[in-house]
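Hi Y.,

Following your request, here is the sequence exactly as I used it, all 192 residues.
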Amino acid sequence: MKDIINFLFEMGILAKTPRSGFHYLGTGSQSVAEHVNRVAFIGYSLASACEGIDVNKVLKMCLFHDMAETRTSDPNYVHQKYVETKEHKAVQDMTCKLPFGEDIREIIREYEERITTESLIAKDADNLELMLSLKEQLDIGNKNAKDWLDLAIQRLKTEVGKKAAKMIMETSSDEWWFGDRKSDWWINRGKA
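Below is the corresponding structure, written out as tokens. Let me know if you'd prefer a different format.
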């Protein structure tokens, strides 16, 4: 149990580990844990929209895909061009004493190979989370986010991911709560 508890404490570091790409964008901020959280929701949604997909496997991939960043930090695209991270070693060291460590290593291996439909959906969920974050920045006026969005769209592999990306681009990030701006609700809050 001690090794499991240490693992859980370590996973808490993801909430304190910033996603580094936002520095280059100039606006926005996000922790790795915030990213992973929404990736899991996206992965579940995409997998549930498809026939014959192992939703549990997709969820595990989404949950564990960036766990090495407790030890490697979040190397952005500029960092990755010059610095070699040892994510496999980090994952091995993190999981070697866990009774479920082999399961985590296997799910990460499958995710990184990008052969199974589940792994492609999970990777699309990762990219779609970036797209949602970028769309939020675009909607509040960061024009640079559009260039990043165009590149992220090109990374998508699944039809369901591409459909989601199209809808992200067509949807205002505040639509979910602001809804119908012509509604009387926004003037009188439903009161006569």
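The chain is about 65% helix and 0% strand.

Thanks again,
Q.
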